[in-house]
Design brief:
Blueprint (H helix, E strand, L loop, with lengths): L6 E5 L2 E5 L1 H23 L27 H18 L4 H12 L4 H8 L3 H20 L1
Antiparallel strand pairs: 1-2
């Protein structure tokens, strides 16, 4: 009389009896993983997770191509500081117009209505002030 073969796999440290199909699939899957790892090793491929250390992760070492370069951030801050310095050199009326247009986001028509002058006059004043600021920033 032939003895029936019992198939068991280890799950969480316990041997569990399974069918032949489950046993075969389970070990085939494990062998497939080892095969892929062996192939990757033979071709010099490395997982970024293998580069993890106490301070950073391997994936953290990858550059973020969507991030704004530090140089651009620094240049932007320097330019913003220079612009603030130049704004302080404007007259009170010039500064008020620039603040309303660019910091309060009001239209030329709204500024004109508040000031009691025409929209075209606001437009001309704004162009002159911006030209003046450009000249100051060039120095």
């Amino acid at each position: 009389m032939a003895e029936k073969i019992r198939y068991k796999i280890s799950i969480n440290g316990r041997l569990v009896e399974v069918s032949k199909e489950v046993y075969t699939c389970y070990y085939r899957m494990g062998r497939r993983e080892r095969y892929i790892e062996e192939r990757d090793f033979a071709h010099g491929k490395t997982l970024y997770s293998q580069l993890d250390n106490g301070e950073t992760t391997g994936e953290g070492m990858l550059p973020d191509f969507n991030a704004i370069p530090v140089e651009e951030i620094v240049i932007g801050r320097i330019m913003a500081d220079r612009l603030r310095s130049c704004l302080l050199l404007l007259t009170v009326g010039e500064l008020a117009l620039i603040v309303k247009r660019y910091y309060e986001d009001r239209s030329q028509s709204e500024v004109a209505a508040e000031s009691g002058i025409s929209q075209s006059k606001v437009c001309r004043k704004e162009k002159l002030i911006l030209a003046k600021l450009r000249k100051m920033l060039e120095v």
